[in-house]
Amino acid sequence: MKHSLLLVFLFISVFSFGQKIKVKKGEVFIDKVKVAHIEKIKAKGLRHFQISDLDKNPIFRAGDLKVASLLFHSDKSYPYNAFFRDEAKDTLLINSKHHYFLSKKKIFKLAMEMGIFTPEGFQTTKFEELVEQTPKRPERILKKLDKERKLLSGKGHRVERDFNDLDIHLIAFPSEKAYSQLNKSMVDQVKYNIYIGDPHVEEGDHTLIGSAIREVGTVSGEYFFIFNTKKFPLASYHSMTFKIYGNKKELGIMDHDIKLSMGSKRSEAIKEMVRELIKRGKI
User: Fold this and answer.
1) Checking DSSP bridges between strand 27-30 and strand 176-179, what pairing results, if any?
2) In terms of pLDDT, which residue wins out, 118 or 262?
C-alpha cells in the first residue's frame, strides 16, 4: 500500500513539474490555459492570497499563519504556511519542515504538487482528505512550544533575600554573535548577571537574582531582556516600551522610569528595569 501511495505521489509531482505555470495581472495560467484568479490581501497585519475560480468566486486562501510564543507573547511568533478556507478546521499545512516565502506562482506550484489543484480546478475531495490526514501545526513549532512549556515552570520564581533590594550590581560578559531571542536574525549580544549586593566585595552580602541580555542588530533595533534564575523571561524594553511578560503588561514612557539615550549607559537602563520588576515583586 505504501509503495502504491509513493508511486501516486511521484506521478503527481512529475506531472505538476512538467506543467508551466504563469501568473499575469492576477490571472493564473497552466500551459497557457487560464484556470484561476489570485489576489494579495492584507488585513489585520496579516498577508494572504485569495484564490478564486474563473468567475472570481472565492475557493481557498494561502498564506502565513502564526503561533504566538508562550514566553514572549506578541513579541515572538512562529510562522508557517498553510492553505485554508473559511472554517478554522479547514486548514491544510503546506510543509511541516520548511517555511517558504510564498509568491503567487509558488502557491500554485505547491497546490499542484499536493494534488489540491489541477488544470481542471480546485480538488475539493483531495483537499478534505489531506486536511483530515495532516497535523494542524508543524512538528518543528510544536517542539519549540514544548521547550517553552518547560520554562513556564519558572514563572513566579523569586530569589529570597534579606538585605537592600535596590543595591543592584551587574557583571557583563564579552559581546558575542548569537541568534536573537525573538527571531532567527544574528545579533550582537551582551549577557549580564544581576546581583543584589556587590559581588566584587568578598566579605559582603550578595546574591544572584537573575540575568539580562542586550541585543543590537535586530531589524527593530536595540532590545533588553530580563530573566529570573530559572531562565523565565520577565520583561523586555524596546523603543521606550517596557513589557512585563508574565502578566502581559505593557508600560509606555509615562508609566516607567527607564531612560535610554544615545549617550546613556546601557547598564543603567538594565538596573532601572530590575527596579521596576522589584517594585512589582517579579524578581
Assistant:
1) unpaired
2) 118
